[in-house]
Specification:
The chain is mainly alpha-helical. Helix content is about 40%, strand content about 5%. Keywords: Membrane, Transmembrane, Transmembrane helix.
Length: about 80
């Protein structure tokens, strides 16, 4: 399957949108609520978590977070 540049960009943008949507749904909608054991693990791991603590010495300092994701099982995409 050959795609022109615009179609290729559209496919990449759509893929990024899907990944972003999945990431947000995982963060916002906690999957641990479906399984009691997963919920207990989630609660145990985050029992002492404080959202106000930031990994900087000065609270006005900007925190840069880098997140890397990649698509797997991409079967056929040709951007020529």
């Amino acid at each position: 399957m050959l795609l022109d540049r615009q179609s290729c960009r559209t496919v990449v943008a759509f893929s990024q949108m899907i990944v972003t949507t999945l990431f947000i749904s995982v963060v916002v909608i906690r999957p641990s609520e479906a399984n009691p054991d997963a919920k207990r693990l989630y609660d145990d791991l985050l029992s002492h978590y404080n959202r106000l603590i930031r990994p900087v010495s000065n609270n006005s300092e900007v925190v840069t977070v880098r997140l890397g994701l990649h698509l797997s099982q991409l079967i056929d995409l040709s951007c020529e």
